[in-house]
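tool_log.txt
---
The assistant was asked to compare two proteins side by side. It first ran the structure predictor on the initial sequence, then on the second. Raw inputs and outputs are pasted verbatim so the downstream comparison step can read them without reformatting.
(1)
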Amino acid sequence: MTPASRIARSGTLAVVFGRPWKLATVRGVPVFVDLSWVWIAALVTYSLWGRLGSLHPHVGSLAALGFAALGSLLFFG
């Protein structure tokens, strides 16, 4: 029996990168996030932080990080 058929017959979610984390349940539908999405969000935040710092040097580093985190949250949320 192949792993794919075992997963299909067991009715469980196929996990590629590891075990997903359950964030919430919205109207009975569970919402999960995988570790890969966390890494992508961190890379987007870091990229925005660097770009904001170079385009607007008068903005402080902590403020640029806050704006980058807000932009990443709006993008992924």
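(2)
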Amino acid sequence: MILTTPTRLFQNGLFRWCFLALFLSVVLGSGLYLNYNGKNLPRSSETMRGIFGTLGKRSTDSQSGQWYRVQGGSMAPTLYGDCRSFSCQQCGLASPFFNFDQHGTRPPKLTCSHCGIFENNLVRSEESSGQLVRVNHFTSGVDLKDILRRGDLVAIKKDDAVHIKRLVGLPNDWVDSEGLHLKISGQRVEDMILSQANQFPLPWLLVDLDSARLVSRWKNSVRISDASEDVLADDWIRSELRSWECSEETNHWLVYQHRSQTRGSIPSPVWDDCVFNTGLSRKLHLVNRLRLSGESLGKGDVEFVFWTTEGARHVMKSFQGPAKFTIRSIEGDLLSSEASAEIPISDVMVIGIHLLSGTVELKDLKIDRSVEYRWRPNDDRPTPFQLSADEWFVLGDNVPVSKDSREWGAIRSAELIGLVDQATKFASPSLHELMGRIDD
């Protein structure tokens, strides 16, 4: 056997041509780099087949479209860019954090997003690359008004970068305000998205997962007029499996008392804090779009009451056996001030549950809050104003930090390059549980 050094091999003419062919195949096979939010994004060779896919209608063809990797956190919790997650030793859930590059190994005052436990009780779990999203590009000359719906995720070419944002305002819509809340043609943006059947629905953030708590934040309480009476025993009992049982009509309410994740777990209203935005200091706002879910066992009539800034909202449910349930505060009927005055809820005790008849067991109680789209203090807010026939209004789901139409102004049709129709799953399943994601 004859061995030849690499130098001698390269001097051979045939080998030089083979080496050149191999070099080109490696370079081309490694994919191109696209720019998203000012950063280089690799596109793998597996997606080259779909690079020329265009959109003339709403398409779900897996061979069409172009893939991008998300960078940053402007679309969290719907889409995640590069981040790190830490697991809490107390509740067992993981919390994602962005902007680590600004703080070195760890940002200051790291806390669990669920229970507020500080960083000495958090365990480094993983680093996650940004999700991949597929963008179906628009065909030249297509009428975008025939394709796009409110709530869609779209790709935008702006400032020589590709951005993914949520489309909320269509041509000729009115953009208005209710305090700081953004409204489109008279409807709050989060309520409008909730009413749409989108590929990427309204995002929710976890407030409380009772099964993850050794000590529950739910507790027994009585009607205001009965508060002076002696209470012999709690009618709502928490089992070893962390479900709540009540076996007869009672004057007791099961009430959730919220505690701050960032202020030492003291009793607190539910704020719109996003603790994954590390190092961000801003004014917080009260949340009034809550969602309660769980599973009911047994048969009985139960009333649910939500505290909101608009007043107490009331929902009735009749359970006829095992069933999962989801109740949103916006679905409730507003109670009169006289009726709500008797119910032991407040801006701190934000949800009350009352058994009217029968016997029920409630398990896996979970509270989420929806993302609420607001103007920020430094945004230019010339509202109300109407979008022209060629203008669109877009927002990022990470409301406090996203660059979008609140900063850019309305987007022109020529800046819309495609519709996002698919995204890879985020790397950590525990984060889906933590952020209250709704999966397909």
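---
observation on (2): The domain at 206-225+236-370 is CATH 2.60.120 (Jelly Rolls). Confidence is low (pLDDT under 50) at residues 1-15, 17-63, 102-107, 429-440.
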